[in-house]
Amino acid sequence: MGKDLSWKACLEKATHSRGSLDFGPLHSLHAEAAYRIGRYEDALKDIGEKMEAWPVDAGRTWAALAGWRFGPRERLKILDRAVAAGGVSPDILTTRRRIQLALEGPKGEESSLHQSSSAYVLSTATPEKAAKLGKLVEDQIRHLTKTAAYSVQAREPATVLHFMSEVEADGFLGGMGLEKGTRGYLSELRLLVVVGDPAWSRFRPRVLGPLFPWYMETRYDLRAIPAWVMEGFTTMVAATSFDDSGNAFSPVARAAIKDMVSNPIGLRRPPTELAGLPSSFWGEEADAVDRAEAYLLVHFLWTHESHEVNGFFRNLFTFLSRGLAPETAYNQALGTLDLEALEDEVKLHRRHLIETYL
Predict the structure, then answer these.
(1) pTM, full prediction
(2) Which residues, 6+ apart, have CB-to-CB distance to 173 below 8 Å?
């Protein structure tokens, strides 16, 4: 879906076209559009009924929607049904095999398992370390349900593949056909891959940050969310800390502040320019300073005392949940908010963070 198209409009057009045309890709578009505007159960039921006639198109889409709504186990279940119905396309078979391997655990039956209502950790570490990681996941999801309450929670617990070393991780993921260094949230498989010792303080961001896109994708098309928002929010929630009772407090992201300082000329880009950078920039060209300034802008807007300013994110996700096109949702969320006029305030916020926390 392009930035100028809305899921609501796609649903209306697909519904009209299906009156005279039985076509797999059309049914897939109809189902995803219905899902994106919050009609989860209707979308799953409708595309499931098309499986027999369109095992590849319906199977692929049904598995994707089920993965978003539930998790990797439900996605695998639907992929198994698609294959049984004749949906044997390469992408279906590849995704199915990767999820199968992932759910077997990084050490097979010898993997340590921590399982709760919100965390499912398969680890190469000891059961105690797996449990420590599981507690961190549980605390963060509880925090996200309050802080990022725009989304809905997946019905399966967050699945995390945990490795104690980079060598272990690359060896296992290589066997799945994934590139060396693959880490964080893997949308295709609907799970997280993290590496390190959960006892290390620097380990926390490796799991806390990727849980944000995992949490948000249950409801939203991540491609529709401005890239700078995803970058900044992920960095911000990655800095969350918890006390022994699981209560969250959100200190600033010191690593991001250090990256800001590494740019000697001050603010590299004014807010309007930063917010206007294309998604491709963030995936291919952005460096540590760019990502730090995305965090700066998110933190500035999020913590601002003005309701008009701090309400931007609430408005953005509300409009996206209604199926508005990405650009329309963004512009309506901005409303009368003028990012250019806020540039001096952003610079002062940057100075405050540097002087206070470094």
Answers:
(1) 0.94
(2) 179, 180, 182, 193
